[in-house]
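Notes from the 1:1 (GR / supervisor)

We went over the backlog. Supervisor wanted to see one worked example end to end before approving the batch request, so GR pasted a single chain during the call. The sequence is below; no edits were made to it. Supervisor asked that the structure be written out right there so they could see what the output format looks like.
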Amino acid sequence: MTRPKSRLPGRPDERAASRRQSSEPGGCADPLAGVLLVVAEAAAGALLALWLAARSLTRPHEATGGKLSAPPPADPGAEWVPIALLAALALLVACVAVGCLRSGWPWTGGMQAVVAVALGAAVLASVVEGDSHHPPEPAPTWNSPPCRSGGDNSECAHSGG
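Structure output shown during the call:
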């Protein structure tokens, strides 16, 4: 009787070891891929920051319709576009982390998970700061009455009159 061609020769232990070696990335490819992805994400974050900075420079000009004498809006509110873009980047990195971890790239997936957690923390900090960013109330003004003693004593010197 002849053997089927799909079976590998050797003991079952040797076959399992040969399958494991072929499915895992070799040597330093896993950490190197992780570092390359982190560098690519840093570059994408830098480009995003430059785009948002350029957008914020042109935003006041667009809001006034080209008029220089128009007053700024009373309460512009929080700017949610940067927060949404940062959240989208964090979600993308988290998806890459899950994909890498499921594919058997533990170093790459771990690095991506750390970056995703850091970006998620930055999103939460931005949301909290955006909600609490209200202009301070003006200080109350109180005009003290003029000194009645003629300004010679220490009472008038400390009262501001």
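Supervisor's comment: The helical segments are 12-23, 29-63, 81-102, 106-132, 154-159.
Batch request approved.
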